[in-house]
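request received
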Amino acid sequence: MRVIGIDPGLAIVGYSIIDKINGENILFSSGSIQTDKSKTDASRLYEIESDMQTIIDKYKPNAASIEKLFYFKNQKTVIPVAEARGVILSVLEKNKIPIYEYTPIEVKQMITGYGRASKDEVAQIVKMSVKYKTMPKLDDTIDSIAIALCFSRNEINLEKLNV
Amino acid sequence: MRVIGIDPGLAIVGYSIIDKINGENILFSSGSIQTDKSKTDASRLYEIESDMQTIIDKYKPNAASIEKLFYFKNQKTVIPVAEARGVILSVLEKNKIPIYEYTPIEVKQMITGYGRASKDEVAQIVKMSVKYKTMPKLDDTIDSIAIALCFSRNEINLEKLNV
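response:
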């Protein structure tokens, strides 16, 4: 069972590939798509679409877990983030990958048991919850692991997918 | 010179195909992509992507004019509309179609000379500004004509594209 966790954004899309083997969550790979601020939004969005397709082709995840937006989280950045998220959802659908969505509060609640946990608190528990050779340093990539864990911790999700 | 005007949305994407011939704006075709509320957002977004590609293949526009979002326009619907807009921008970029963007206020200003014009006022001027056989009835489609006109009324845009 392999899930891709995705933290969407126009400037940075964090992603991680988590394998669930014998009940353990193993960080197989992780990284980010970073787009150039000097380019047009359309060109950055198409780059995200192309790169996401490459990542899916490479890792062939059985499911995707992606952050769901909350409009009052940050009004100024919500539009570009939503535009990037739309592109990512469409790529996942094109590849027939089942999609699971969690709001930032749900992610914090499910990972730390506390909906208002800090980024550091989430990162600490993420590091204890997965086996890894190298832990990424970028916040967005660590967030994508937390998002992936929301999915793969839930046995009901795994049963539904029959894997 | 052919421009596609696009009014983005998750439930309805209005579009119109405007040809500029001898200084006249001619409504060649228009319509809408309408997605089913009972489906997932990802599936609706992918439907928008596929249908936009079909429309581009059919009409081969030289340029695209699309509404740009303003986050305080309608906070509750801005996220799904932005997600749909992201998908549309990516399709346009993939097809190497130059993109021009106008906020709702700019559209009203450019069409009626008044940034707070009503939908009816915009629609009335749209009807006087294009030659047409049939005027669409759907608001979103009429809006897409107004958006297309913002582009095609501007001779500087046409010169830049060398058409």
